[in-house]
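Q: Sequence in, structure out?
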Amino acid sequence: MSQKIDGTLQAAQTLRAVGPASRPGISTDAPARPVQAADSLKLTGEATNLQALERSLSAAPAIDAERVAAVRESLQNGSYRINPEAIASRMLDLDQQLQG
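A: Exactly. Output:
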């Protein structure tokens, strides 16, 4: 079947009702029953590990209060030392991880 698309609707004459009443052998007297889902989902080991990691991270505090207190104390007493090589190395590591 082919139909020219010209913006006019001529489908009204070709449409027919589709539903339980128009299908032979289907009773409309019985109430509808929900359909049991047959789909299932199985997670890979990696996905399961990621879910466990997500749960543990969501339970952990966002800020390590002990580390903050230690840095604050070392800043106040002047013993905090900045290691530019370690910072640069970590920045390069992060850059390589992001680039894949």
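Residues 67-100 form one domain.
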